[in-house]
Amino acid sequence: MHCEACAQAIKKRIEKMKGVQSADPDLKASEVTVKGVFEEVKLAEYVHKRTGRHAAIIKSEPVAPAEKAGEGDAK
């Protein structure tokens, strides 16, 4: 990313991907923090396909599974 306009264009394209909740570009680090529920590999491929720019997953945090309602106290 060279400028703020580049960062905003990439952010706009990433936010259109299914499962993405938010995208926060960091121009100085040339990184974008993406939050949501999606496959990392598909995100990298999507960014490369839509923007023509290199994309790599730097850090991934797994989502904690939600507890099923009714478990535990039910007899």
Total DSSP E strands:
2
Mean pLDDT: 83
Side by side, the strands of the main sheet go 1-2
Largest sheet: 2 strands, antiparallel
**Order of helical and strand elements:** HEEH
Structure class = alpha+beta
- Based on CA atoms alone, the radius of gyration comes out at 16 Å
Keywords: Lipoprotein, Metal-binding, Prenylation
Domain HMA: 1-56
Protein name: HMA domain-containing protein
GO molecular function: metal ion binding
Explain what you see.
The chain has 75 residues and is α+β, with helices and mostly antiparallel strands. The chain has a domain at 4-51. Helix content is 32%, strand content 17%. It is built from 2 helices and 2 strands. The protein has a two-stranded antiparallel ribbon with strand order 1-2. A hairpin with a 4-residue loop joins strand 1 (20-26) and strand 2. The N and C termini lie far apart (57 Å). The relative contact order is 0.15. The model has no long low-confidence stretch (mean pLDDT 83).
